[in-house]
Amino acid sequence: MRGTGAGGPQVKIAQRKKQFEPRVSITSVDSAVDFPNFDRVFHNVFSLSTPKEFDLGLYRKGKSKSVRFAHPGLVSVAREEFDRAMPQPNQIDRQRDDIEITAEDLLAAPEGTITEDGVRTNVRVGIQYMEAWLRGSGCVPLYNLMEDAATAEISRTQLWQWIHHPKGVLDDGREITMELYRQILDEEMKGLKQVLGEAHFSAGKYARAAQLFNEIISNDELEEFLTLRAYEDLD
Q1: Is residue 41 over pLDDT 70?
Q2: What's the average model confidence in pLDDT over 78-102?
Q3: How far apart, in whole angstroms, are the C-alpha atoms of residue 180 and residue 189?
Q4: Entry pTM
Q5: 39-43, 69-73, 215-219: which has the highest mean pLDDT?
Q6: What is the DSSP string of 154-209?
Q7: Coil, strand, or helix at residue 129?
Q8: Are 188 and 119 within 8 A, CB to CB?
């Protein structure tokens, strides 16, 4: 988007079929650009360009968010970086025939030890990511790492598996039960409130995030996706 001078009609760049339409647009300085979502999936639009850095967060089909551009220059949305690395729609052609994975490999329990610190980290990361996701953020800086949904999925899946699998035992010999998990959840929530402060904690969506996270972990069946229960909470 190139600045051309003040004034001018508002521009729309649609998200349709998982791409931008049009891919390039010109708008006037101090004008707004709408980004309506016409896809059935949630989309996010963001840019790291110098003239205008922004992150609109996730929003559903039928919703639109806008950005006002106060300075002239070329603003590129982050999708271009992904297209440069993988211009094709998928990587089905990468079959990795050099690797043979058996059913036994997939079902084998991983080796190594489970620590209480690992359980607590999964609880903290999972809930804090869920809280940010409920506020519309898809990437969250946590403990000097930039975390996304994949990290949260690993955290909650490990917790569920440790609770439901007979080898879910801590390195000190304690079984990872639902009771132990809920005790740790309660302690970690109190710790978060203390670190963040009462005002910040209450202004966020931590209580709802913990409730959703606990429902997912407590379910007898491993849920397909972490965020499925949370979609109804989004505006």
Answers
A1: yes
A2: 79
A3: 14
A4: 0.58
A5: 215-219
A6: HHHHHHHHHHHSTT-BBTTS-B--HHHHHHHHHHHHHHHHHHH-HHHHHHTTHHHH
A7: helix
A8: no
Residues whose CB falls within 8 Å of the CB of residue 102, separated by 6 or more in sequence, listed in order: none
Residue type, 89: P
| Three-state SS at 10 | coil
Can you state the percent helix, strand and coil of the chain, rounding each to 5?
40, 20, 45
Residues of the chain with CATH 2.60.40.420: 11-85
Strands 11-12 and 140-142: unpaired
Determine the topology of domain 103-233 in CATH.
Malate Synthase G; Chain: A; Domain 4 (1.20.1220)
Q: Comparing C-alpha atoms, which of 152, 133, 159, 167 is closest to residue 235?
A: 133
**Rounded Cα gap, residues 77 and 144, in angstroms:** 25
Q: Which CATH architecture has domain 11-85?
A: Sandwich (2.60)
- In angstroms, the CA 139 to CA 83 distance is 19
CA distances from 211 to 126, 138, 183 (A): 12, 19, 14
